[in-house]
């Protein structure tokens, strides 16, 4: 980091993410933050749990959520950028049949968003509501994640926003996935006794080893990679570069 911060502190937020706070109190015209990590992913345990978890219907999951389970309830309540309207709720109800497997319904939702919505950058902002994305049928990874969250939460079910990265270099003969050159967004749903299962509607994929999770929360504003307060004057710009390679 440059310049060196006067204060630096690490802590864990309410969602279990590791955060770092820093304060720079000297005059500076440029701030540079570099993060290098070696990540070890293991999705085998998720694959092993899938078949058993897929036997549970979404109605069973909804009925099993306790009123005092705040760690899960916080992922059911809509937020400013994941609010649903009547159209979104009706759309979700068509996909989620009463006694159908929850995970299979979520997979269908993921596939439907991938098929029916167009990936279009520059159309939305971080504050674009799902109702706009639903109506105009286009957006980016963040919008598709928020739309899925709105659908699932409209039924009173838990879902969380996931932020991370995708391996930059695709396997030989395969196309680079959308979102591979910057931070990516997808969503995850909760199945009691089995944990969280991830889905990427932008690429119509169940995340595997090429996905790197950095944080999760109720929506994007819980997982912003870098945020803070700056005092000064004049214009400012931000440059971001990401590289993910397999070792």
Automatic annotation (TrEMBL):
<dbReference type="InterPro" id="IPR002931">
    <property type="entry name" value="Transglutaminase-like"/>
</dbReference>
<protein>
    <submittedName>
        <fullName>Transglutaminase family protein</fullName>
    </submittedName>
</protein>
<dbReference type="InterPro" id="IPR038765">
    <property type="entry name" value="Papain-like_cys_pep_sf"/>
</dbReference>
<dbReference type="Pfam" id="PF01841">
    <property type="entry name" value="Transglut_core"/>
</dbReference>
<feature type="domain" description="Transglutaminase-like">
    <location>
        <begin position="133"/>
        <end position="203"/>
    </location>
</feature>
<dbReference type="Pfam" id="PF08379">
    <property type="entry name" value="Bact_transglu_N"/>
</dbReference>
<dbReference type="InterPro" id="IPR013589">
    <property type="entry name" value="Bac_transglu_N"/>
</dbReference>
